[in-house]
Specification:
The complex is a heterodimer of chains A (566) and B (207).
Chain A lengths: L4 E12 L3 H12 L4 E4 L7 H4 L35 E2 L8 E2 L9 E2 L18 H4 L13 H15 L24 H12 L5 E2 L33 H10 L4 E4 L2 E8 L5 E8 L4 E12 L3 H9 L25 E8 L19 E3 L15 E7 L10 H7 L4 H10 L3 E8 L8 E9 L5 E6 L4 H20 L3 E3 L5 H4 L36 E3 L14 H21 L3
Parallel strand pairs in A: 1-2, 1-10, 2-7, 4-16, 10-18
Antiparallel strand pairs in A: 3-5, 6-12, 8-9, 9-10, 11-14, 11-17, 12-13, 13-14, 15-16
Chain B lengths: L5 E2 L1 H16 L17 H4 L14 H14 L14 H11 L1 H21 L10 H11 L10 H19 L2 H7 L6 E2 L6 H10 L4
Antiparallel strand pairs in B: 1-2
Helix pairs in contact in B: 3-4, 4-5, 4-7, 5-7
The chains are: A alpha/beta (566), B mainly alpha (207).
């Protein structure tokens, strides 16, 4: 039997995963004076080396194609200039997809996880998201009124732009000043007004004013590449690096969590992990554990933590772990808008992403043929020219010479893009489980995915497609690449990278794994703090809610430890 | 825009450097395995290549042919220099040196151009044929409507060449200037010029 090294130190809390949830737990728990060990499967992040927001294509010999021209052969996993944070395929860490299903699993492997690059769209869930009024899905064990103060804290710390609009579908928050709209956004707003669709300042985790020691945004427009001034929120820069200075945090990178080790009473006593560099197994002793490895990775860790007391995986007597897997419904359309062609040149960068967006506007409408809703993300402007920026235009115009060159100049900045992000209702065919036949390079059993959209999502995509086309028409534009068949048009499950629901919370231990504080019903010192606890997948990207729920769970955990209940 | 204070690029990098040295202070431990993750340092990326580019993968003839082809795809005109001046052939040759798959596309494509031209223009290869013959051949392979067993190899190659010449050109300093791209700088605030808003609204049906 291989020797397993155990730490002599007993940490108050071991946190698994360093993204939005893990970062929040690390920040809150170290602020409260607890000793924390953070286990991250990837390497340390060094923004000075790793973030390329001020590199221009021609400053790199391959201009972003990759060392072996990978971009041109569809082999590039993630844009060269994007923040280094994860992959669709990791050579040593496979997963499988059941026959008949399509699912893509994005996994981060770096300190800060997806928060190094994410879109930073920061939307509160609505009251009806927590307590649905249409009889579909299950209610959350917590109300909007209970969560509102935690959203206040989350927004106050990470910094979110916005305006108070009084919309039930987009609850107002604790906002930084909004950012001025771009030209195409003003035009889209006019078109939306004509169609009675709201189009309001976006709610984004970028600083329009300095906050908590982080500098205000300098509007270079490349937030997706990471932000060296940390003006765009990332858990790595805003939460974890400051926590490292407290002396309360022990960082373990290149550390792949294998299993939660329990004692005879079913309490977690240690986190077992594989040190990837030495391929040796080690254990961190702890009084409590916060699992925040991303929804599916957290489910995997729990399912792989089997013991005589928990034969189906720790805290899983209900059998719900892995079930209720959802992703956002995704559909995108672009349009060419002649009114924008030849526009006087100016710097349209601003913050990376939209300055205006469309919140859901048809809540309670009985005439539509799908439940729930979606929001619309808006794109356009004079983007930095990149490899591939003009490939679609080349395919459309064909030819060569001065005619092609004139077209490309004239049309630069004249395209708009719409992306719908909608709610998927959990269904029985969408879940992940342990694949009994595969392990990764560390010997850890891998996940097998099952996934399927229902008519609810397909009809929603048809609605998106009609809406986007009518907005483009109203601007006098031409919709491009319309996909009339929603089965072709809808995103592949997992592709929007908003997985949720796989370790759901609830008030009934028979149908849920966690209570309203993200604490396992059956294991009092086990908390899950990513999107796995989420009962539904509202049309409001999950990250802000991950921070709010993780903050609440962490304060609750610290208080329970202080009282001696954990 | 005049009320905005725009930092110079150097100021920006200095400011970022200051913020970073603050962020990096502290008990940051970097295990050895982290080195594998480190991206190519930006400083290395920026290494300038003085003097004319020397082809690494294509022969002198292939390179000269590609250079000519790039100039036909995006020529110099009264607005701006073209793909030859922007060094499109150098970018493509560089990637050919990095990928055998890419190299095969270009060596095969250029051989097809030469072979086809020889049959059409009394034995002359593409580069030595008169300009009118060169464009006459491109007029056949620059359009999907001419797809046929005879022209497919040429059309497939031209699609690659056009895409990559366009990529190379517009990601170059010349291409940035041609488009009028002025982003990725550092600004103290963001707004768009009123004249741009007016221009668009007037031309739109919503004006």
């Amino acid at each position: 039997m291989l020797q397993i090294t155990r730490t002599p130190q007993v940490f108050d809390v071991v946190v698994v995963g360093s993204g939005a949830g893990g970062g929040t737990a690390v920040k809150v728990l170290t602020d409260l004076g607890l000793s924390v060990a953070l286990v991250e499967a990837g390497p340390m992040l060094n923004p000075a080396r790793d973030f390329k927001e001020h590199v221009l294509p021609y400053q790199v010999d391959h201009r972003g194609a990759g060392a072996h021209a990978d971009l041109y052969f569809g082999r590039q996993q993630w844009g060269y200039f994007e923040a280094p944070n994860g992959y669709w395929d990791i050579p040593n860490e496979p997963y499988t997809v059941a026959e008949g299903s399509r699912f893509q699993w994005f996994r981060s492997r770096i300190v800060g996880g997806r928060t190094n690059h994410y879109g930073r769209i920061s939307l509160r869930f609505s009251d009806y998201d927590f307590q649905p009024e249409d009889g579909l899905g299950d209610p959350w064990p917590v109300t909007y009124a209970e969560m509102s103060p935690w959203y206040d804290k989350a927004e106050g710390f990470i910094g979110v732009t916005g305006t108070r609009e009084g919309l039930r579908t987009a609850p107002d928050g604790n906002f930084l000043p909004p950012i001025a709209p771009r030209v195409h956004e003003l035009l889209i707003q006019k078109a939306c007004r004509k169609l009675s669709i709201p189009c309001i300042p976006s709610r984004m985790a970028m600083l329009t004013k300095p906050l908590n020691g982080r500098a205000a945004c300098h509007y270079c427009g490349q937030c997706g590449r990471g932000c060296q001034t940390a003006s765009a929120f990332s858990s790595s820069q805003a939460m974890i690096f400051p926590a490292m200075k407290t002396g309360k945090l022990t960082m373990l990178t290149g550390a792949m969590a294998r299993e939660l080790v329990t004692d005879g009473e079913g309490k977690v006593t240690a986190v077992s992990y594989v040190d990837k560099a030495t391929r040796s197994e080690r254990q961190l002793r702890c009084r409590a554990v916060v699992v925040a490895a991303s929804a599916c990775e957290s489910a995997r860790l729990l399912l792989n933590s089997k013991s005589p007391r928990f034969p189906n995986g720790i805290a899983n007597s209900s059998g719900v772990i892995g079930r209720n897997l959802t992703d956002s419904v995704g559909y995108s359309m672009s349009g060419f808008v002649p009114a924008l062609a030849g526009m006087p040149r100016h710097n349209s960068d601003g913050i990376g992403g939209m300055h205006l967006y469309v919140p859901w506007w048809l809540y309670g409408d009985k005439t539509k043929d799908f439940p729930r809703g979606y929001h619309i993300e808006i794109g356009g402007g004079f983007g930095m020219p990149q490899l591939g920026s003009f490939t679609a235009q080349c395919a459309r115009h064909e030819g060569y010479g001065k005619a092609l060159k004139d077209k490309l100049r004239e049309e630069y900045g004249a395209f708009v893009h719409f992306s719908g992000r909608g709610e998927m209702i959990p269904n029985r065919q969408s879940y992940c489980e342990i694949d009994p036949r595969r392990t990764d390079a560390w010997g850890i059993p891998v996940l097998r995915f099952h996934f399927g959209w229902s008519d609810a999502e397909l009809n929603q995509v048809r609605h998106m497609e009609n809406t986007f086309a009518s907005i483009i028409d109203t601007m006098g534009g031409q919709p491009l690449g319309r996909k009339e068949d929603p089965r072709q048009a809808i995103s592949v499950g997992g592709f929007i990278i908003h997985e949720a629901g796989t370790v759901r919370m609830g008030s009934d231990p028979k149908t849920s794994a966690l209570n309203q504080y993200s604490q396992a019903h059956e294991v009092k010192n086990l908390f899950v703090c990513d999107a796995a606890p989420f009962v539904s997948q509202p049309d409001k990207n999950v990250t802000l809610s991950i921070v709010a729920f993780a903050w609440r769970a962490s304060e609750y955990l610290a208080e329970e430890m202080r009282k001696g209940n954990v | 825009m005049s009320e905005q204070t725009d930092y110079s690029r150097r100021d920006l990098l200095r400011r970022i450097g200051g913020a970073l040295s603050l962020a990096a202070a502290g008990p940051m431990i970097l295990p050895a395995q982290d080195a594998q993750h480190v991206h190519q340092a930006i400083a290395d990326d920026k290494a300038a290549q003085p003097g004319p580019y020397r082809p690494k993968a294509l022969t002198a003839h292939e390179y000269a042919t590609l250079d000519r082809l790039s100039g036909l795809i995006l020529p110099a005109d009264q607005h701006s220099p073209g793909a030859i001046e922007a060094g499109a052939a150098a970018f493509i040759d560089f990637l050919c040196a990095a990928s055998d798959e890419m190299l095969a596309i270009y060596t095969g494509g250029i051989a097809w151009l030469d072979d086809t031209m020889r049959r059409r223009a009394g034995g002359q290869d593409f580069l030595s044929a008169p300009p009118a013959q060169q464009t006459a051949l491109l007029d056949l392979i620059a359009w999907r409507k001419n797809r046929s067993p005879e022209w497919n190899p040429g059309i497939d190659f031209f699609t690659w060449a056009r895409r990559m010449v366009v990529d190379a050109y517009y990601t170059s300093p010349i291409g940035f200037k041609e488009l009028g791209y002025m982003g990725n700088s550092a600004m103290s605030s963001f707004s768009v010029p009123a004249e741009a808003v007016e221009y668009v609204m007037k031309r739109s049906p919503l004006g």
